[in-house]
Write a structure and sequence with these properties.
It comes from Turnera subulata. With 465 residues, the chain is an alpha/beta fold. The chain has 14 helices and 18 strands. It starts with a helix and ends with a strand. Bound molecules: 2-acetamido-2-deoxy-beta-D-glucopyranose.
């Protein structure tokens, strides 16, 4: 270690600061103990992250939290007083009570903007807020300082969580490529203004509310990435005509989607965990959405989608084959998902990598399968309908959270039995203890049992982790 520190010490100060700036802020701070001349060097990092959560413990009394917050503010102030770099690359400020320190917050944000910050992240949300339950009472009370609009023309990436802003004043953000908004009430009209005025390539909305619906229709937009994460819409419909995305992520309840011409899309992630009801109408919505996404190469789906999709227009597969090469299923491998798992495998004839990410999921109690079936025979009785991908293109299977339940073993046995081109089978054993007394050791023993099963591939490598 000493030798390495010595070698580093011969580098110029400016180079060292560049290296330090590549480290997360906390790691950079820890270099202060490496050597005497390093003690203050980290304070020149251009990657500054002031995070209240490094100081405030939410399990302490409110009074104690207040003292901890004051210590945080003192740290911020002393850091900025000593700071001497002319340009800041990234500036992060996280605090859940910004209005208790309004002046200090505003000053530090203005400081970052005056040093030509490129990546500005302001998060005033509270770590105790519920993500999975819609609730409108999380009103923001901090307003984006005026200085940011006036001098923020170099900002390329902006994140505003629980921070009030005026969309009409975004016209100065001529370099803004990435915008992430969260924990705020927002209207489609405001988003339209921002999209019109800024050259956005990436838009992310997390836990926003009061959106009437989501609608983009201009073909002049350069938007390539869209993330909609647990937002609350007045009308559950999303319509996208014009921009061709490369990445699309949706998390929330099932909505009506109108996506057009998404042939450039490389990756999509669909998470309907928030959906509480099983209904046939929803099947049609999901079926149509997945059909629009048929160009994606990497697709992540959830358990709710697997349960609902066969109740759409076709119960067995999509009418147009997908281009998916890597399919990630977040699944409980519950029997309610059987038809959906088969549906997706059928619909991805070029699949090369299959990842089963096994964990708890929403299982619909009122689920109804498209056809009656026996849980024990499902994967064996229909073996004449071997999915083309399993038979020919599938090379790698990753199983995460393996516990060796009967359902998991049925599915894996089926894949091994027909996967003639399989090369790798990676099993990541769950560390969780089961209610039935199972633990990592029993899970691992069951995993090893897999090596005893018949397999179609000659040179298959099965690994356990
Ligand atoms: C938002 O900014 C515009 C343009 O500067 C201004 O006319 C309007 O009053 C502002 N709205 C609010 C609510 O402050």
């Amino acid at each position: 270690m000493d030798n390495k520190v010595d070698a580093l010490s011969r580098l110029s100060t400016s180079l060292l600061i560049m290296i330090l700036s590549l480290l997360p802020f906390r790691e950079a701070a820890r270099t202060g103990v490496l050597a005497r001349q390093w003690r203050h060097l980290w304070r020149e990092t251009t990657n500054i992250e002031f995070n209240e959560n490094f100081f405030v413990r939410t399990d302490e009394s409110l009074e104690e939290q207040h003292f901890q917050r004051c210590a945080f503010i003192t740290f911020v102030k002393s850091f900025l007083t000593q700071y001497s770099q002319a340009v800041i690359d990234r500036f992060v400020l996280v605090s859940s009570r910004p209005n208790h320190f309004l002046l200090d917050m505003t000053n530090s944000i203005n400081f970052a903007v005056s040093r030509h910050v490129k990546d500005l992240e302001l998060d005033f949300s509270d770590p105790t807020w519920e993500e999975d339950i819609y609730d409108d009472c999380y009103e923001a009370d901090f307003e984006l300082p005026s200085h940011v609009y006036e001098f923020g023309s170099l900002i390329e990436s902006l994140k505003l969580y629980s921070c009030i802003f005026n969309a009409s004043r975004f016209c100065n953000f001529q370099a803004l490529k990435s915008l992430s908004l969260g924990w705020i009430s927002i209207s489609m009209a405001s988003l339209d203004v921002v999209l019109r005025d800024c050259p956005l390539e990436s838009l992310s909305l997390k836990r926003c509310w009061n959106l009437e619906h989501f609608h983009i229709s201009s073909s002049e937009l350069g938007l390539k990435r869209l993330v909609i994460d647990k937002c609350e819409f007045v009308h559950d419909y999303l319509s996208i005509q014009g921009p061709t995305f490369e990445y699309f992520k949706y998390s929330g309840s099932v909505a009506q989607f109108y996506l057009e011409n998404q042939l450039e899309m490389k990756e999509a992630d669909l998470d309907f965990r928030m959906e509480t009801e099983f209904g046939e109408g929803l099947g049609v919505y999901i079926y149509d959405l997945v059909l629009e996404l048929c160009a994606v190469r990497v697709l992540t789906v959830c358990s709710a989608l697997l349960q609902i999709i066969p109740s759409g227009e076709e119960p067995t597969c999509l009418q147009t084959p997908m281009q998916v090469r890597h399919l990630i299923m977040k699944t409980a491998v519950h029997e309610n998902e059987y038809y959906g798992i088969r549906f997706m495998l059928y619909s991805c004839p070029l699949l090369e990598i299959l990842t089963l990410d096994i964990g708890p999921a929403r299982i619909f109690e009122d689920y109804e399968p498209p056809f009656a079936f026996s849980v024990d025979d499902f994967w064996t009785t229909n073996s004449d309908m071997v999915q083309r991908c399993i038979d020919s293109t599938l090379r790698v299977v990753n199983v995460k959270g393996f516990k060796g339940t009967v359902n998991q073993l049925y599915l894996l046995r089926y894949i091994l039995h027909f996967g003639r081109s399989l090369e790798e089978f990676n099993i990541y054993v769950s560390n969780e203890d089961g209610e039935d007394g199972t633990n990592r050791d029993t899970n691992m023993a069951r995993a090893h049992g897999i090596t005893q099963l018949y397999r179609a591939a000659r040179n298959l490598r099965i690994s356990f982790f």
